[in-house]
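Researcher: I'd like a structural prediction for the single chain below. Treat it as a standalone chain; there are no partners to consider.
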Amino acid sequence: MKLGVLCSGGDSPGMNAAIRGAVLRGVDVHGFEMVGFMDGWRGFHEDDWIQLDRLAVRGLSPLGGVILGTSRVAPFTGRRGDEIDLTEFRERFASYGLDGLLLIGGNGTQNVAGMLSEAGIPVIGLPKTIDNDLAGTDYTFGFDTAVSIAAEAIDRLRTTGESHRRCMVLEVMGRDAGWIALHAGMAGGAQVMLLPEYPETLEQVCDWVTSVRDRGRSSLVVVAEGFRLVGVDRAVTREGLDGFGRPRLGGIAEVLAPLIEEVAGVETRATVLGHVQRGGSPTAFDRVLAARTGTAAADAALNGEWGALAALRGDRIEMVPFAEITDRLKEVPEERYAAARLNFG
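Model: Treating it as a single chain, here is the predicted structure.
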């Protein structure tokens, strides 16, 4: 059996460990041939690939980034009216002599995997995204690392904030779901966590900040990049579009900080954590999760369990059909946010 491995979308700590897990199980145990396409779908379209074997994946587990590269290049190049034309895709798939694809990615990538599966192309998904917003799995690899980095930033901001009696606003990633903001905020003891799913009024945010000041403390506010104040119809954006053609988010902390200072009368500073959350070595949790996911994907290919995501459910890796996750976003449940909100301020 010959498998192709491809990464798509944003990078996420643990991707190298997932590739290593899949290759060691697939090549060394099952006797597969495996190739990796460079820079996502670009490599697939342009015949740019490398052979994957034990030597190619040696020492990968602790490394951040991804040896294959990743991109937001579109998987399909042809259309027939309103329908996607897979003729060229099928020809390329056949030209490589592939029996199946292992696709490492988040929501967009797994939606593509579902489309390919429906079209009869053998695909297995591996769930990576720092946002943890992929349906069907309890956790995605990369999330724990991003939370750990954000929690460390909170620890550092707290000491300087307390020294100057300032309110510190930390912006973390999270376009549509606030998992990083929630978990990092809880880990770091932040007094306020603002998520895309649950808009709040400026007055409420300032009430929480002044409550903390009145106790003789300095506030730490964690805000996801996709958060919107009540009455604001869209998230704060920077210039340009991202790889999916969406407005590029970022800067809500820089908008929120002067508003808090003006209304609450508390000196406030903003920090945008940005791509630091994606970089560096993955945590031990993410390394193990990614490796288990890669191993499970190779086993699933051997057993013909195509058309599914290698998902973490409880402490087990289970194969979840794409039909159960396609076009679904895993948001922070209302009860989770409500429980945390009771302790704001």
